[in-house]
Amino acid sequence: MTELRDHPQIAELMETLEKNDMHKEKEKVESLVDYIGDMEQTLTEMLREMQDMRKEVSLIHNNSIRVKCQNLVQKTEDKIKQGLAVVVKIKDNLIQSAKNAVKTFKEKGKEAFHNAVIAMKIPETLDKLADLFGKFSRDIEQDIEKVKSMQTELSSAKGHLRNFGRLLIGKSAKEAEKANADKGILMRFGKLLDKMSNGFGNLSQKAMDKADTIRISHVRDSVRKELDALKEIKTGRAKSDSARER
Fold it and tell me: Does pTM top 0.85 for this prediction?
């Protein structure tokens, strides 16, 4: 996994921002670059864990429950892969935007460069990611309830086996052993889905926090500029009044 911040276009953008004392803008870009790295690492690990669980789910003896679980595994993997596809798209867009921004600076100067960084729409990108991963988290929470229903279904089947076992002791014991094995897999699957939901939820929260931090910083800068402007006006008036008095 290549570090995005080491990419030549991103590195040049960071260096250009630093040389022009555009520290706030640099922080914005760094915020998105760091998040993309976290997102890629988290999603890659999540996919690996789901693929391991797919193998375990295939061992479930109960045909109906096995098929239901396999469908849930596929749904969750599809969400993770969608997230990884978004990572690739955002990385490509960011690299191209970085290239364009530096080119704009070289051709048109600092003010145009500043506008080019704003045009990257970094907080808006983080908002979209927060919404996407938040939805994924909520969807998986519903799937966890389905796994709980399967556990109830399996427990009910075990009860029937106990009654049936009065007639066929040996066969009932073997079927009960299979049901216990299935129950263990379901329990681990439910816990993994909960972990997946939390993983998406954490990605969503991180994106929201980063977007909020950028916006708060922007508001503070705007307020500071307004106060400085008012201070200059007052200072100018004071000097003018002093000059009239003399």
Answer: no
